Amino acid sequence: MKNLLAGALLLGLARAASAQVAAWGQCGGQGWTGETTCIPGWSQCLPGSATTTSASSPISSTSPGTISASIPRATLTEITNFGSNPTGVRVWIYVPQNLAPNPPIVVGIHWCTGTANAFYTATGYGSLADQKGFIVIYPQTPNSDGCWDVHSTETLTHNAGGDSLGIVSAVRWTITNVNANASKVFATGSGSGAMRTNVLIGAYPDVFAAGSAVAGVPFACFEGTSRWSSECSTGNLIKTPQEWGDRVRAAYPGYTGVRPKMQFWHGTADEILNYNNFGEEVKQWTNVSGVSTTPTNTVANYPLSGWTRYDYGPNVMGISAAGVTHDIAYQSNLILGWFGL
Ligand SMILES: *[C@@H]1O[C@H](CO)[C@@H](O)[C@H](O)[C@H]1NC(C)=O
Ligand SMILES: *[C@@H]1O[C@H](CO)[C@@H](O)[C@H](O)[C@H]1NC(C)=O
């Protein structure tokens, strides 16, 4: 990767103004000191790693990352050696042809027994990335049961390890190597991926700007020695807003920055993760955001008939889907809207 654009060709095509490098131009590489922003839509004008050592990047210099050649565009591609990955999470990336300059990152997380490819296919985020220019990262669980680790101390603690750290390392790698915008990193998933989204938003508030969890449970609801918590899944783990909020704050003690926006969706007839978890998520994320559990706005039949949207100020939103099971229809476009994409 480091040498990807060292000595990149200048083919004499029309140059953009100095603010952006033209198509085919060099915008990175070892020792490069020129412009680092490429015009949209030109895969050859991919910034090299030498351009991304700015102080604002949270990545450590010990995670250089490697890709077999360059990252192919508009192709689901596995990346490896992307930094600390103690549990061996596998990661696929989708970089659209029309990559936006300083692009956002959406982390799309599969359900239990799902795969990166299944989530890619089911959500349509690849073609949405083609339209909007963001990057998608699809992690895939290393666990034999196909579910994510959302229970261990490591995964529930900032920078402590578990599946959480592997995913965050892939995000940090992408910020550096694809010159993504560290302020526009988002997480979403369904089922086990929704639980994982809650965990990432709780443990890495500095990395994610927003999350959207479709049929999940609160941060640390599965906490304990076994991978599955029947107490939580059956809706019998009930805490106060302060207790749920305190558990999130304990994941990253001393963090005083802005908290991510959080959205969660849940069917009232969810037979896998009881609907009580919707109310527990309301308590948790309103407390973390410092707002009341009383909605500030309610929208009936949003976005589908019988579903109800509850706003808790601008940064917390719950959508309750009447009569819907765990197999709730995933709303890719609206979730991107929540992310501002
Ligand atoms: C990165 O995202 C932030 C937050 O939306 C925005 O203010 C900033 O301009 C973006 N940076 C670039 C270089 O586009
Ligand atoms: C939420 O947590 C804070 C601590 O930051 C606490 O002071 C507050 O009372 C809690 N709010 C509610 C509604 O429980």
Structural account:
This protein is α/β, with parallel strands linked by helices. The protein has one domain (2-339): Alpha/Beta hydrolase fold, catalytic domain (Rossmann fold, 3-Layer(aba) Sandwich). Helix content is 23%, strand content 15%. α6 (241-251) crosses α7. The chain is globular. The structure holds 2-acetamido-2-deoxy-beta-D-glucopyranose (2 copies). Residues 241-242, 245, 287 line the site of one 2-acetamido-2-deoxy-beta-D-glucopyranose (NAG). One of its GO terms (biological process) is xylan catabolic process. Belongs to the carbohydrate esterase 1 (CE1) family. Esterase involved in the hydrolysis of xylan, a major structural heterogeneous polysaccharide found in plant biomass representing the second most abundant polysaccharide in the biosphere, after cellulose. Its EC number is 3.1.1.-.
